[in-house]
Amino acid sequence: MSTSAYELLQVVLKAERARILSSLIRTCGGDFDLAEEALHDAVVAATTQWPRAGIPDAPDAWLIQTARHKAIDSMRRDQRARVKLSELGHTADLPRGEEEWTPIPYDMLRLIFTCCHPALNQEAQLALTLRTVAGLPTIEIARAFLVSEQTMAQRLVRAKRKIREAGIPYRVPERSEMPTRLEAVLLVLYLLFNEGYSASSGERVVRRELCAHAIHIARVLSELMPEAAEVRALLALMLLQDSRRSARSDARGDLVLLRDQDRTLWNRAQIEEGLRLCKEAGQGPSGGAYRMQAAIAAEHARAAEAKDTNWNQIARLYEALLQTRPTPVVALNHAVAVSMAYGAEEGLRMLGPLVDDLDRYGPFHAARADFYRTLGRLEEAEHAYRRAIELATNDPERRFLEGRLREVQGMAIPRAK
Amino acid sequence: MNYLLLIYEDEKALHARDEKTRNQVFQEYGAFTASVRASGQFVAGDALQPTSTATSVRVRDGKTITTDGPFAETKEQLGGFYLVSAKDLDEAISLAARIPSARFGTIEVRPIWNYE
User: Fold this and answer.
1) Residues 1-40 of chain B whose Cβ lies under 8 A from any Cβ of chain A
2) What is the ipTM metric for this complex?
3) Which CATH number fits domain B2-111: 3.40.50.300, 2.60.40.420, 3.30.479.30, 3.30.70.1060?
4) Helix axes of A229-242 and A178-197: crossing angle, nearest 10 degrees
5) CB atoms near residue A175 (< 10 Å)
6) What is the mean pLDDT of residues A174-188?
7) Which is the most buried residue in A116, A270, A409, B100, by most CB within 10 A?
């Protein structure tokens, strides 16, 4: 195959694979495997036909058309699929109840919602979304989740089998189901993003790509569902967090705290888009947890320097977030914001009731240590830093805390003498 | 597709339920059954006697071994079932959610094996 035809094929696949696949899965009556095989066959056909007959005017349409023929051929050969084919004959048009969503391209939405169907377990949802919506090869997904390729392949096989055998439909949820189903999709995207954002140790590069994939899918979803404020809010949140990527670690890969970051390294384009989306999301009728989190991230993004941060506003936002998401971790963040706004004494007081829930959570002890340090209670600070180091989950975090520990020890020695 | 909706509930809690609630749930079951019959989704369905009446049977080395009690001791016990016809899992799930016991126990939704 000539280089240009081959290169073009790669470009088309990279940009359009998910869209092509989403349409093929519908043609195949919701059968992911059949659609993937048909697409594979079409790609093989392209590698032989394009160099001979020339590159088609619309390469993506050519791939869809060819794959569709291949899929229908193999369905005709397969007894069970034949039944499905005759069923599809009647329902080639939009299923009932989805008319309201016109004129959005249903197939990508179908794909996203099916991958995140609550009848699949969460691991399966994440894997399937990465494989089919983001188009990541199985081996890369395996690396991202620190499991063997075989384990990940098994997980994907099981998920696709459940979709087929249990009859998980390939459709966009109806309006009445939409809130809960959308919540599941947003959670998958947020987990993907966080998996990449908190990437630790050797697999950092692969895992960081998860952030880009999560952002990309959220962007697609936001375009397909412009009326959904929570989608915009989540996209805003991810963009605002991702904008700090270059500033979050130093040359050694060590963690740099928000207040110590070189803010000129922040990605202005992402911040501007994030702030714009925040504003748009804020005009919708409902105020969910992602909107609150995005608003908090936006406050940080607006501060030109750490000392300009509006901690009073952030503390208020955490208080509001605590209403929708009353978890110990949110309460911890609230306490940190309050300490910044009103002093470490107040923050420390708020940590008291959280100790039972968060005693095994490193950031809890790190926050406590910081409060003690600020208040000059160095022995307690030292003790809390040690506990935080024990519980640290990645190397940069551990090194950072060890630095802090040495600092308070250095402060303590002259006092002891 | 056909789906078996297995109804699991805590038998102890079931027996401890007061008369009024019991009647109400009974009536709800009647209404649910009537509605799935009317919609043509009902294939079969019934309630089971409590697990105290269960007998488990195994054949090992050609010998039939019979033991008193259900297959496994669980927190919630199988107490009834519906066999329904639904166009996909979502429809089966929404039927399961309408079974009165879904509020107290758990409904397990299992697709019926397709031999075709």
Assistant:
1) 1, 3
2) 0.87
3) 3.30.70.1060
4) 0
5) 11
6) 92
7) A116
